[in-house]
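Before the break, one more example. Copy the sequence into your notebook; we will annotate it together after we see the structure.
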Amino acid sequence: AMALSAPGGTVGEATKIHTFTTDGVHTAKVTCRDAASNEVASVATNVIVADITRPTVGAASPTTASAGASTSFSAPYTDVVGVISCNFHADGVDQGAATLSLPGGEAGTASASYTFNSIGAHTVRMTCQDSDSNEGAGPVTNVIVPDITLPSVGIVSPAAAAVNQGATYSASYSDNVGVSTCYLFGDGVAN
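Here is what the structure looks like once it is written out:
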């Protein structure tokens, strides 16, 4: 029953909270009955219910990638009315549309391929939009692009030495990010 502002009175207002669980056009009407059991209904009113719930977007994965190689990233999504589009973001920049496993569906996976051209720490995230233009963003995911390039080491010189006399040995080296340590091994033993 609705709450009456003046129960038993000849004039008043009837109120009640109601929640529509889907978006779209719904109807609402009120019926009232007097003490003599006479009952009348109001004219039905069209109520437009809008979805204001943002899609829920999960964390993108994987969390590692190789420099210069395309990596496929994906993130799960859910929404009460259905996700119609998702965009992939790398290092804070929108990279464009992702592919949806179930376009317009209430749950699915968004995926996009991307190539990081530099090693180090990067970020990715997915944002998704539903059919009512609500946008949800997944959390920022940290992606590590490790250095997998081995340093190169040249030939050790000098190639001749005298017994019981110290010699200074050297070798050239190079690496894409920088060499941090070199060791000299004499007959397999580190010096």
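The CA atoms of residues 3 and 15 lie 5 Å apart. The mean pLDDT is 94. Try to locate both features in your own notes.
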